Amino acid sequence: MAKKNKKAKKKLPLAYKPIGFALGWTSGTVAGMAFQKTWKVIRKEDNAPDALDRDRGWGEILLAAAIQGAIFAAVRSAVDRAGAKAIERSTGTWPVPDTGGRD
């Protein structure tokens, strides 16, 4: 029984890959929408500055990048954690090896 459980634990990270990919794609989409709404509240503009936007200053571009990065990291972590907890609840096994994470 223990040997069978070990094999299942080894296969789970591989089986989790497509789920993790879908969760990552979803979290990126949600984070993008959250950033657009946040930028609209902060600057009252529909479009955030792009690094190559000639009409925007360094401060505005770096502020937008910092806010976008923080939102993206928070959403990605929340979605990843919720997905891993859901897998653990349904299978009884954490979806990735104990050592290290995705990064």
UniProtKB/TrEMBL annotation:
UniProt cross-references to InterPro entries, sorted A to Z: DUF4235
Its transmembrane ranges are 58-79
Q: Does the keyword Membrane apply?
A: yes
Which Pfam families does the entry mention? DUF4235
Q: Which UniProt keywords apply?
A: Membrane, Transmembrane, Transmembrane helix
Name-wise, this protein is DUF4235 domain-containing protein
